[in-house]
Amino acid sequence: MRINRYQIIISLCFIISLLANYAAQAKNVDVHWSGQIKDVHNGNDLSAHIDINDIEPKTNLWAIGPIEFLEGEITIWDGLPLIAKVINHKIEISHDWQTKACFLVYSRVNNWHKITIEKELTNNNIESVIENTAHKFNLSLNKPFAFQLKGQAIKSQFHVMHNKQKIVFQLNEEPIEIIGFYSQSHQGIFTHQNSNVHMHIKNKKGSVCGHLESFILKPGAKIFYPNK
Q1: How far apart are CA 164 and CA 39, in angstroms?
Q2: I need a surface site. Which of 29, 89, 173, 226 has the fewest CB within 10 A?
Q3: Considering only the top CATH level, what class is 31-226?
Q4: Is the pLDDT confidence value at 13 over 90?
Q5: Domain assignments of the chain as residue spans, ordered by start
Q6: pLDDT, tens digit, for every residue of 110-123?
Q7: How confident is the model at residue 228 (pLDDT cuts 50, 70, 90)?
Q8: The pTM is what?
Protein backbone atom coordinates (compact mmCIF):
# COMPACT_ATOMS: atom_id res chain seq x y z
CA MET A 1 0.00 0.00 0.00
CA ARG A 2 1.48 3.30 -1.10
CA ILE A 3 1.26 6.36 1.11
CA ASN A 4 1.09 9.55 -0.92
CA ARG A 5 2.77 12.82 -0.05
CA TYR A 6 -0.50 14.35 1.16
CA GLN A 7 -0.95 11.58 3.75
CA ILE A 8 2.62 12.05 4.97
CA ILE A 9 2.07 15.78 5.41
CA ILE A 10 -1.18 15.18 7.33
CA SER A 11 0.56 12.65 9.57
CA LEU A 12 3.44 15.04 10.25
CA CYS A 13 1.04 17.85 11.09
CA PHE A 14 -0.77 15.56 13.51
CA ILE A 15 2.50 14.57 15.22
CA ILE A 16 3.61 18.21 15.47
CA SER A 17 0.24 19.10 16.99
CA LEU A 18 0.62 16.36 19.61
CA LEU A 19 4.13 17.52 20.47
CA ALA A 20 2.99 21.13 20.78
CA ASN A 21 0.14 20.09 23.03
CA TYR A 22 2.51 18.05 25.19
CA ALA A 23 4.87 21.01 25.47
CA ALA A 24 1.99 23.23 26.56
CA GLN A 25 0.88 20.87 29.29
CA ALA A 26 1.28 21.67 32.95
CA LYS A 27 4.81 22.63 33.97
CA ASN A 28 5.41 23.00 37.68
CA VAL A 29 8.62 24.22 39.28
CA ASP A 30 9.95 21.58 41.69
CA VAL A 31 9.09 21.89 45.37
CA HIS A 32 11.29 20.33 48.07
CA TRP A 33 10.81 19.81 51.78
CA SER A 34 12.55 18.49 54.86
CA GLY A 35 10.79 17.37 58.04
CA GLN A 36 7.03 17.21 58.53
CA ILE A 37 4.61 19.73 59.96
CA LYS A 38 2.59 17.00 61.70
CA ASP A 39 5.61 15.91 63.73
CA VAL A 40 6.05 19.48 64.93
CA HIS A 41 2.38 19.98 65.77
CA ASN A 42 2.29 16.68 67.65
CA GLY A 43 5.41 17.66 69.56
CA ASN A 44 7.11 14.50 68.35
CA ASP A 45 10.10 16.13 66.70
CA LEU A 46 11.17 19.75 67.07
CA SER A 47 14.80 19.10 66.21
CA ALA A 48 16.58 20.47 63.16
CA HIS A 49 15.97 18.67 59.88
CA ILE A 50 17.73 21.12 57.60
CA ASP A 51 20.31 23.88 57.83
CA ILE A 52 19.24 26.58 55.39
CA ASN A 53 22.88 27.43 54.74
CA ASP A 54 23.26 23.99 53.14
CA ILE A 55 20.65 24.71 50.46
CA GLU A 56 22.31 25.45 47.14
CA PRO A 57 21.97 27.44 45.02
CA LYS A 58 20.46 30.23 47.08
CA THR A 59 19.60 32.44 44.13
CA ASN A 60 15.83 32.75 43.57
CA LEU A 61 15.17 30.61 46.64
CA TRP A 62 11.77 30.80 48.37
CA ALA A 63 11.13 28.94 51.62
CA ILE A 64 9.02 28.87 54.78
CA GLY A 65 9.14 26.95 58.05
CA PRO A 66 9.79 27.26 61.80
CA ILE A 67 13.19 27.45 63.46
CA GLU A 68 14.30 24.34 65.34
CA PHE A 69 12.65 23.90 68.76
CA LEU A 70 10.07 26.52 67.72
CA GLU A 71 12.23 29.53 68.48
CA GLY A 72 11.10 31.66 65.55
CA GLU A 73 10.12 31.61 61.90
CA ILE A 74 12.12 31.24 58.68
CA THR A 75 11.04 33.00 55.51
CA ILE A 76 13.38 33.07 52.52
CA TRP A 77 12.24 35.69 50.03
CA ASP A 78 13.92 35.46 46.64
CA GLY A 79 17.22 34.41 48.14
CA LEU A 80 17.06 36.70 51.18
CA PRO A 81 16.59 34.99 54.56
CA LEU A 82 14.19 36.76 56.91
CA ILE A 83 14.69 35.14 60.30
CA ALA A 84 11.98 36.30 62.70
CA LYS A 85 12.35 36.01 66.46
CA VAL A 86 10.44 37.63 69.31
CA ILE A 87 12.67 39.74 71.54
CA ASN A 88 11.15 41.95 74.25
CA HIS A 89 7.67 41.33 72.82
CA LYS A 90 8.67 42.63 69.38
CA ILE A 91 9.65 40.95 66.14
CA GLU A 92 13.34 41.18 65.34
CA ILE A 93 14.50 40.25 61.83
CA SER A 94 17.98 39.00 60.96
CA HIS A 95 19.39 37.69 57.69
CA ASP A 96 21.39 34.86 59.21
CA TRP A 97 21.91 31.87 56.92
CA GLN A 98 23.24 29.94 59.92
CA THR A 99 19.72 28.89 60.91
CA LYS A 100 18.15 25.45 61.17
CA ALA A 101 14.51 24.45 60.65
CA CYS A 102 12.49 21.65 62.19
CA PHE A 103 10.68 21.54 58.87
CA LEU A 104 11.02 23.58 55.71
CA VAL A 105 9.36 23.70 52.31
CA TYR A 106 11.21 25.47 49.51
CA SER A 107 11.43 26.07 45.79
CA ARG A 108 13.50 28.07 43.33
CA VAL A 109 11.50 30.43 41.16
CA ASN A 110 13.15 32.88 38.80
CA ASN A 111 10.17 34.26 36.91
CA TRP A 112 6.52 34.67 37.83
CA HIS A 113 3.22 35.02 36.02
CA LYS A 114 0.87 37.61 37.51
CA ILE A 115 -2.91 37.84 37.66
CA THR A 116 -5.12 40.48 39.29
CA ILE A 117 -8.07 39.34 41.41
CA GLU A 118 -10.98 41.77 41.29
CA LYS A 119 -12.58 40.64 44.54
CA GLU A 120 -11.53 40.30 48.15
CA LEU A 121 -8.94 37.60 48.73
CA THR A 122 -9.10 35.85 52.09
CA ASN A 123 -7.72 32.82 53.85
CA ASN A 124 -11.14 31.25 53.29
CA ASN A 125 -11.24 31.61 49.51
CA ILE A 126 -7.58 31.50 48.51
CA GLU A 127 -7.62 27.79 47.71
CA SER A 128 -10.63 28.06 45.39
CA VAL A 129 -9.15 31.13 43.70
CA ILE A 130 -5.90 29.28 43.08
CA GLU A 131 -7.77 26.26 41.76
CA ASN A 132 -9.71 28.48 39.36
CA THR A 133 -6.75 30.48 38.04
CA ALA A 134 -3.56 28.38 38.15
CA HIS A 135 -4.54 26.42 35.03
CA LYS A 136 -4.31 29.61 32.99
CA PHE A 137 -0.55 29.38 33.41
CA ASN A 138 -0.24 25.65 32.72
CA LEU A 139 0.16 24.69 36.37
CA SER A 140 -1.04 21.27 37.46
CA LEU A 141 -3.06 21.09 40.66
CA ASN A 142 -1.79 17.54 41.05
CA LYS A 143 1.72 18.76 41.81
CA PRO A 144 2.86 21.23 44.51
CA PHE A 145 3.93 24.76 43.61
CA ALA A 146 4.84 28.06 45.23
CA PHE A 147 2.77 31.21 44.85
CA GLN A 148 2.87 34.82 45.97
CA LEU A 149 0.16 37.28 46.98
CA LYS A 150 0.59 41.05 47.08
CA GLY A 151 -2.08 43.53 48.02
CA GLN A 152 -3.56 45.96 50.50
CA ALA A 153 -4.55 44.22 53.70
CA ILE A 154 -7.82 45.12 55.34
CA LYS A 155 -6.57 42.96 58.15
CA SER A 156 -4.20 40.06 58.68
CA GLN A 157 -3.06 37.96 61.59
CA PHE A 158 0.13 35.96 61.92
CA HIS A 159 2.35 34.48 64.57
CA VAL A 160 6.00 34.00 65.40
CA MET A 161 6.97 31.06 67.60
CA HIS A 162 8.82 31.88 70.83
CA ASN A 163 9.70 29.34 73.52
CA LYS A 164 7.33 26.93 71.75
CA GLN A 165 4.47 29.40 72.08
CA LYS A 166 2.65 31.36 69.37
CA ILE A 167 3.06 35.12 69.74
CA VAL A 168 0.35 36.73 67.63
CA PHE A 169 0.71 39.94 65.61
CA GLN A 170 -1.35 41.83 63.05
CA LEU A 171 -0.79 43.88 59.91
CA ASN A 172 -3.85 45.95 59.10
CA GLU A 173 -4.60 48.61 56.50
CA GLU A 174 -1.22 48.38 54.82
CA PRO A 175 0.42 46.62 51.87
CA ILE A 176 1.46 43.05 52.61
CA GLU A 177 3.29 40.32 50.70
CA ILE A 178 2.76 36.59 51.09
CA ILE A 179 4.74 33.57 49.99
CA GLY A 180 2.86 30.29 50.06
CA PHE A 181 2.93 26.71 48.89
CA TYR A 182 -0.03 24.85 47.44
CA SER A 183 -0.51 21.08 47.35
CA GLN A 184 -3.43 18.68 47.37
CA SER A 185 -1.20 15.79 48.47
CA HIS A 186 0.95 17.04 51.35
CA GLN A 187 -1.39 17.71 54.25
CA GLY A 188 0.54 17.15 57.45
CA ILE A 189 3.79 17.26 55.47
CA PHE A 190 4.16 20.93 54.55
CA THR A 191 0.55 22.11 54.63
CA HIS A 192 -1.73 21.92 57.64
CA GLN A 193 -4.27 19.17 58.08
CA ASN A 194 -7.49 20.02 56.18
CA SER A 195 -5.66 22.68 54.17
CA ASN A 196 -3.90 22.75 50.82
CA VAL A 197 -1.86 25.87 51.57
CA HIS A 198 0.88 27.01 53.94
CA MET A 199 1.76 30.71 53.91
CA HIS A 200 4.10 33.26 55.48
CA ILE A 201 3.56 37.01 55.47
CA LYS A 202 5.79 40.07 55.52
CA ASN A 203 5.30 43.79 55.29
CA LYS A 204 6.62 45.60 52.26
CA LYS A 205 9.88 46.57 53.95
CA GLY A 206 10.51 43.08 55.28
CA SER A 207 10.87 44.42 58.80
CA VAL A 208 8.26 41.99 60.16
CA CYS A 209 7.26 38.54 58.98
CA GLY A 210 5.82 35.30 60.28
CA HIS A 211 3.44 32.41 59.80
CA LEU A 212 0.17 33.63 58.31
CA GLU A 213 -3.05 32.63 60.07
CA SER A 214 -5.75 34.77 58.44
CA PHE A 215 -6.09 37.70 56.06
CA ILE A 216 -8.42 39.83 53.96
CA LEU A 217 -6.98 41.65 50.94
CA LYS A 218 -8.85 44.40 49.13
CA PRO A 219 -9.96 43.80 45.52
CA GLY A 220 -7.12 44.29 43.07
CA ALA A 221 -4.61 42.05 44.84
CA LYS A 222 -2.14 40.13 42.69
CA ILE A 223 -1.41 36.41 42.63
CA PHE A 224 1.95 35.31 41.25
CA TYR A 225 2.54 31.82 39.86
CA PRO A 226 5.84 30.21 38.85
CA ASN A 227 6.80 30.67 35.21
CA LYS A 228 9.04 27.71 34.41
Answers
A1: 14
A2: 89
A3: alpha beta
A4: no
A5: 31-226
A6: 999 999 999 999 99
A7: confident
A8: 0.87
